[in-house]
Amino acid sequence: MFEQLFLHIKKSVSLTAEDENIIKTYFSSKDIAKKEFLLQEGSLCKYNYFILKGCFRLYIITENGREQVIQFGLENWWITDYVSFSSGQPSKFYIQALERSEVLYYSKEKEEELFLRVPKIESYFRKNLEIAYTASLIRIQYIFALSGEERYSQFAKLYPGFIQRVPQYMLASFLGLTPEYLSEIRKKNTK
To answer: Which end of the chain is less packed: N or C, by CB atoms within 10 Å?
Structure first.
């Protein structure tokens, strides 16, 4: 179980056996049922989750009651509401499992202690946040600069694992398309 996390960490920083043993003491594991929430709007986000198995979505409910998907997460990705996690403010997001999943997680209250005991972990998380921020900027650029067909094409090329695992209406929401238009694009691409 922890080997998957350690392999991910070791892509960014080296770990000793002692580091790994310390890190293990800060994490817990949890099985998540399909449609179960890790977070709901109005609650505090107390945990950062590493996805061992499964698929998640982070979304908001708009003023008109529509679900707007902000982020998806698959195996070996982290998912949390960093605004609530960092500030202690109530979340404006939902995080929901789209299939039966398994996560490792640690609490905000233990984060600083973990960083002090294994300083290179802070570097690992900084690198992950840089990657996440870059991905967010690219997504914003795609929304404003690319057509719907181009957005779908780019997403399918970059994240082929999502196309079959995520319901079409959620993928449409994430890409800023209607489900009907996404269906047309997909039909056109299969011809």
So the answer is: C
Q: Is 11 exposed, middle or buried (0-12, 13-18, 19+ CB in 10 A)?
A: exposed
CA distance 13 to 133: 19
Does 90 fall in a domain?
yes
Convert the pLDDT of each residue in 70-116 to its tens digit.
999 999 999 999 999 999 999 999 999 999 999 999 999 999 999 99
Please state, in angstroms and as integers, the Cα–Cα distance from residue 72 to each residue in 88, 95, 116, 123, 170, following that order: 23, 9, 30, 24, 10
Tokens of 68: 């707007």
Domain membership of residue 66 as a residue range = 2-117
Is 33 a member of any domain? yes
Three-state DSSP string of 17-46: HHHHHHHHCCCEEEEECCCCEEECCCCECC
